[in-house]
Structures are given as C-alpha cells and as structure tokens.
Amino acid sequence: MVRSIWRWLDDRTSHRAAFNSLLDSPLPGGAHWARTFGALVVILFAVEALTGVGLALWYAPTTTDAWASVHFIQYQLTLGWMLRGLHHATGNVLIVVAILHLLQALLWGAWKAPRELSWIAGLVGLQVLILISHTGYLLPWDLRSYWATQVLVGIAGNQPGVGELAVRLIQGGAEVGNATLTHLYAMHVLLTPGLFAGAIAVHFWLKRKHGELAPPDMTAEVAAEKAQTWFPHQLVRDLAAGMVVMLGIALWVWRQGGIELGAPADPAIEYVARPEWYFLPIFHLRHWFTGSFEFIATTVIPGLAVTALASLPFLHQRLASRVKNVDRLLIGGTSVGMAFALYLGVATAVTDAANEKEQEINARAEEWAKVTHRLAMIGVPVTGPLSLYENDALLWGQKVFGRECAACHAPGDTQPYEGSVCLDGYASRTWIKKFMRKPDAPHFFGNTKIDAMDAFEGDGEKLDAITEFLYQQSGRPDADPTLAAEGAVLYDKEGCLECHALNGTAPADPEAWTGPDLKGWAGEAWLAAFIRQPGHDRFYGKLNEMDEFDAEQLTKIELQMVIAWLRSQSDEKAGF
User: Fold this and answer.
1) What is the enclosing helix (H) or strand (E) of 75?
2) Domains located in the chain, CATH noted
3) What is the DSSP letter of 15?
C-alpha cells in the first residue's frame, strides 16, 4: 500500500529523481567543514520557524497585552523561558552564520561569473534576515523595545522625501500604538520570513545550476580527484555542525535562564535604548551625521556598502584585464570595510559601557522590571501592564512622581545636582537636619530664587529638638513628644516664627510674607494643599517656581499615592 502511494507520487512529481540528484551532487575537492555554513543557515532558520510558531500561540500584538503575553511565556508557561531564549539566541547566531557564509563565499570566489545572481540573492537574504530579527526585537513591548521603536520611527522620519510615508507605514497612525505592533508583528511572522525563504530558494536553485566550487587552495585536477558526493560525506558534517551549534545555543540559554524582559513600555520611565549588535555600526555613524544629515548614516552609507558588495562580480569583470591581482584587491577592500564596521560596533559598545550616567538610568529601569515581574505574577489587569503599579500604593506614587515631578526633583546622587529641592528622604529627620544646616545647598534652595533663609547655627541638641518638632508636624507616630515639646519652645526662641508661622492659613498681608506656614508641614493635608497650589500665599507666594497640579493633571487618587510615597521617605534615602 505504502509503496503504491510512493510510486503514484513519484509518477506525478518525479521527487525520487530530484532527491537522488541532490544526494549525488558532486563536491569538487570533497566534503569540507567550510561548506556547512549554508546548511547551518537552513537549520537555524527552521529552528526559528518552529520556536516562532510556539511563541505565536501565546503572543498578543497589542499595547495592553504584548508585554503581559511575553511575561506569561517567560515566567508561567512550562519551559516558556527556554522557548523564548532559543528563539532569540538562534536568531542572533543565524545572522552571525549568514555573515560567515558570506565571507566564505567571498574567499572561495562564489561571487564571480556566472554566479552573480546567486551572490546577490545571498546578500538580499542577509538584509531580509536582519529585518526579521529587528522587527522581532521590538515585539516584547518592554522599555528597551519601546524606546528602540521610537528611535526607528525617528530614523524613518528623517529620510528625505519619503520620511512621512515611512513613519505612517511603521506607526500605522499618528503615534506609536496598537497599529505599530500589528505592523511589526505582520512583518516579523508573515512578510519577511516569506521573503527570506524565497531568497534562500533562489540562492539554492542558482547554486545547483552552476554547481559547487572547489576550495580556493586546490587546482581543478586535484579537486576532481578528491571529489565526493553530498551524501553521505557532506551531510554528516552538516548535521554534526547543526547539532553542535544548537547544543551550544541551548546550553547558553539554560545558563542564562532565557532572555531578559524589561519593565513594560512606558514613556514616563527613562531608558537608554540601543539597537541589536548588528545595527551598532550605523548607530555610531549617527553621531557623525546629525539632524537633517542623519539619513547619510542610516541610509546612504549602508546602501552604498550593500551596493558595493552586490557590484563585486561586475567590478571583477571590468578590472580583470586591467588590474593585476584584482581578486586580492576586491577581497581586501571588502575585508577592510567589514573590519571598519566591526570597529564601529565595538567602539559603540565600549563607549556605552563606560558611560556611568547611562548605566545608572538603565539600572533604575531594571529595578522597575523586577517590581513589575513580581506584581505580574499576581495577574496583569485587563487595562494593561502599566496598571500593575496600582496594586501597590507606594509604587504607584513613585511612578506618578517619576512622570510628573522627577524632571525637576532629580535623584540625590545626580552629579552635579541642578534640579529643584531634592525629595530623596524628604521630611525625614536626616533630611530636615541637612536642610536646616545648609538651606542654600544645591539639593535644597541652591538652584532656586529662594535665598533668604539663614542656616541654623545652633548646637546639635537644639538642632535635634527643632528637627523633632518639625518631624512631629506631619503626624508621625514615632515622633518623640518630649523632644518635640522642647523643639516647639526653641522654634520660637531661635526666631523661626519670624518667618514661618504656625497658623495653617495664609498671612493677612501677602506683602508681609516671608516663608511658608509650617503647621502640619509634610502631613497629608499640607502636602495635598501644597501640590495643588504651591504658589498660594500660605506656601511660597511670589517666589514659587513649581507648577500647579490640578485635578485634571493629577487625579485625586494619584495625588494620594504621590503623598503616600513622599511620606514613605526615610533617613536612609537622604544620603546625598
């Protein structure tokens, strides 16, 4: 029965003849490990397709669900971390192997006539492969992919003549959103894999048409003597190379625990985005061509480089009769260009590693990632991963503070400190003491127009007492009432009342204003009134530089969360 079906299929497809022709393909010079690169590309692409299907079963390309679905794959799906890690790592190795295959073809002369179209098909396949990888890089919709997408959109918008159209095609709308993810997803799983498979098919067909090349160090006679068939000699090497590479990838993924997933995409959280390694040379060139000239780095130079590679066969034909050692000239020039691209990529990586400020920004982003992963294990709200923070009042408050306040109130370890009053450790005993000793320091009023407050020069015991009195104003349950009572007396005796009343209201004569009223200072009611209207005469009046936050800009619940976060500040956080 099976033989009958097999014969019936062969009568109509002649697949046995085609298959036998493949197995018996002659290899001048015999089987060679350098010939395994092409087979590795096919093997790795097959692994990418299989793992991609696995990921697609769980992935949802929307801004509310993309990160949550990837988080589920990474942390809750059985071996999902391995599946995602294999897909990511194999994709990167696939590009490396494709580049090595390109170099092998270059050295073996596989770009010369009559193999011009085979060489060009391989180049096209490499470009498509990079596009596949990059569109996948943007799909997790975490901070890294979000900001990388913003960079991509910015680059597209800087292209002369077609910038606006390119942005619309990528974004799918006025801004990055659901349509952007849908477009990227369609490109990643449908369009680009089909193009790559087509390029491989054309490359393979042309390679079969023109036959295999002998190693460059063999004469035609020696290559003919050592010729072998593809099966079993080369097939064994191809399969062995595939097994070794996949085993290495699997071990790396296992040791790494998969590929990281950052905090959800959020424009309010700063992140220093960098493209994948294969785009680092272009990223470096962008520093040389800025503004309206950026397209030179992102389009012109890469385009000229690819065009030069595609032109090698035709340059060879033109120069062969005129230039001595033309092969060495063309191969050497190409190698220098590749080495320069490698240098640019390494230089970018080294520069980034030495940039402490960028490292600090991304370190804070990693802390957010740890928080969101913990909260996501409870469950991601249907409104999206950004709502995760609402499950924790202090985190929600910190998030809102980062969105609305951090631009002015910088972290205390910022050097040099150029912001408004630093709120790290705000209203803690340590913060109060530092403030009273040096109110004109950069972390306090030094960068504002408020410069009338004198530093407190009393001894340590008096400072402790006044600090406790002010600390008690916010309703802290751990305040020492006895010490605070001593501080109340000193508050008047040391002249604090001359500037800072304790009435809880605005002065009758605004022109007589000298400083904010401190009754209930840093308490919930005081902070709520201050944040809503910091320029009120009860607070900073005409000297105010802070924006007002009405209910439209800061909802009632958001205001409560910010206040809760401010009141959670401790002495340890006032370490600036």
Assistant:
1) helix 66-75
2) 34-357 (1.20.810.10), 392-573 (no CATH)
3) H
